[in-house]
Amino acid sequence: MRSLITYSSAVAASRIAALRTRRESGAETTEWIFIVVGALVIGGIIIAAVTAFVEGQVSQLPGAQ
Questions:
Q1: Considering just the CA atoms, what is the radius of gyration of the chain in Å?
Q2: How far is CA 62 from each of CA 12, 33, 57, 59, rounded to the nearest angstrom?
Q3: If we measure between CA atoms, which residue out of 45, 43, 41, 65 comes closest to residue 55?
Q4: What 8-state DSSP symbol labels residue 63?
Q5: What pLDDT is stored for residue 59 in this prediction?
Q6: Could you give the CA distance from residue 28 to residue 5 in angstroms, rounded to a whole number?
Q7: What distance in Å separates the CA atoms of residue 55 and residue 4, rounded to the nearest whole number?
Q8: Nearest CA-CA partner of 54 in 42, 41, 64
Q9: 47-60 residues labelled b (16+ CB within 10 A) or e (exposed)
Q10: H helix and E strand count, the chain
Q11: Which pLDDT tens digits describe the chain residue by residue (65 residues)?
């Protein structure tokens, strides 16, 4: 029984050490979701601003209703 506890604690210690030294690279799925949603929101704001500007300029043309 004692050897099982010793083995289990050794395995746990090695796993903890491996997790501490492992470096994560890249973005996780949730980070990518936030990045894509943010890009879509920024794109929508830009499109709305350009559309409002163009419609304002068109309304200033002579003969525009």
A1: 29
A2: 79, 46, 11, 8
A3: 65
A4: T
A5: 87
A6: 35
A7: 76
A8: 64
A9: eeeeeeeeeeeeee
A10: 2, 0
A11: 677 778 788 888 888 888 777 776 677 888 889 999 999 999 999 999 999 999 999 988 888 66
Domain limits, the chain: 2-59
Token pair for residue 1?
């029984």
Cα–Cα distance measured from residue 19 to residue 17, given in angstroms and rounded to the nearest whole number: 5
Is the CB of residue 40 less than 8 Å from the CB of residue 48? no
C-alpha 11/C-alpha 5 separation (Å) is: 10
In the block, tokens 């083995």 appear at 7
The pLDDT value given to residue 29? 84
The pair of three-digit structure tokens given for residue 46, joined into one six-digit string:
């830009």
At 4, the amino acid letter reads L
Residue 43's identity, in one-letter code, is: G
Query: 50 is written with which tokens?
Result: 């350009």
